[in-house]
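REQUEST FORM: STRUCTURE PREDICTION
Request ID: SP-0412
Submitted by: Lab K.M.
Chain count: 1
Length (residues): 378
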Amino acid sequence: MTDSATQNAAEAAGKHEAPDDARPDVQAVILVGGKGTRLRPLTLSAPKPMLPTAGLPFLTHLLSRIKAAGIDDVVLGTSFQAHVFSEYYGDGSELGLRLRYVTEEAPLGTGGAIRNVLGELTADTILVFNGDVLGGTDVRQVLDTHRTSGADVTMHLVRVSDPRAFGCVPTDDTGRVTDFLEKTQDPPTDQINAGAYVFRRSVIEAIPAGRPVSVEREVFPGLLSAGRHIQGHVDYSYWRDMGTPEDFVRGSADLVRGIAPSPALGDRRGESLVHDGAGVGPGAVLIGGTVVGRGAEVGPGARLDGAVVFDGAVIEAGAVVERSIIGFGARLGPRALIRDTVIGDGADVGARCELLRGARVWPGVTIPDNGVRFSSDI
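STATUS: Completed
RESULT:
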C-alpha cells in the first residue's frame, strides 16, 4: 500500500500513536475467506472484503476500528484469492498493526475457519469478526461485557425489524444467551447474531480440527447444551450485512455521509466523496453518498445519486447513475441511465442505454449505443 488513500487511512487510524487503552492481551481474527457470490460480477476479480467501499477496501474500515479499540495483533483467515490480502496489506505496519495470514486449503465453515488459525493465537481473549459486516459497535464495550460477565463466549447482538433472514438469539434478563435459532421463520426475538464474537481461547481449542464446522449450527448450540456461558452484548449501533449489491451501495453511502463510523475516513463526510486524481465536469451533480474513485472521470451534466464509482471508471456527459456500482475501468456513454445495477470491471455501456432493476453487466462486455432500453424514445 503506497497511495495517498492508504496514507490517509493510516493516519486516521492512529498509525503512530497507541490508544491510551491499548489491549496487548487481546488478538483479533477476521474471517475473509468467502467467495462473495451474491456480489458477482464484482467479486470475479477481487475478494468481497477488498472491494472499494467509500473508496477504500472494505476490510480497511474494519481494521481501523480494531486499531482504534487498542488491538494491534490481527490474524486474517483467508481462502478465496488469499494472495490479494497479503499483497495489499503486507505485515500491516502501514496501519499500525501486526497482520498475519492463515489460508484454508478447503472450505471449513465459520467454526472450522476459526479453529484453523489457532496456531497464530497466543492470547486468552480472541475477538472474531465476520469480514463482510459493516458495523459501528464500540469494540471496547463488547470486550468489557465479556470480562465482567465471565462468559466463555460473548456475542454481539443487534436488533432488526425482520430477523427471519438471520440467526436469532434470545437472551434472559441478565443478557445470557438461552438459544440460537438459525434463520427461523417464527423468531421469538428481534435480536440477531451480528457476526462479532469474543472467545476464550480454550473454546477455540475445543472446536474439531480439519473438517467443516459451523459456529452457528454446531459450536454455539453445543456450548449451550453443555451449560457453558454465552453472553449477549446487545446494542443499537450501526450494522449492515454487505453481501448484496443493494446493501453494498447503502453501506458505502452511509460511510460517506457519516452514518456508519470509520476511523479510516477521518473527518471526510458529506453528500459525496471524490478521491485523489478523479475529475468531475461542470454541472455534474453528486449526491446521496456518492463516491468517485481515484482516476475516475465524471462528465459534464452527469447526475450521480448514491453511486459507487470504482477507480478509473468513466461516466460521460449527461449520464445518470442511481444506487449502482460501476466497476474498475468501466465506461458509461453519454446520457446512459443506470439504476439499481452492477457494471463489471472494464465493461463499456453505450450512449443512451438504460439498465435498471438489478441488471448485472459482466466484466469486459460491450453494449452498443441504444443497445438496451426500457423506454421507446431515443
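NOTES: Confidence is low (pLDDT under 50) at residues 2-19.
Reviewed by: T.R.
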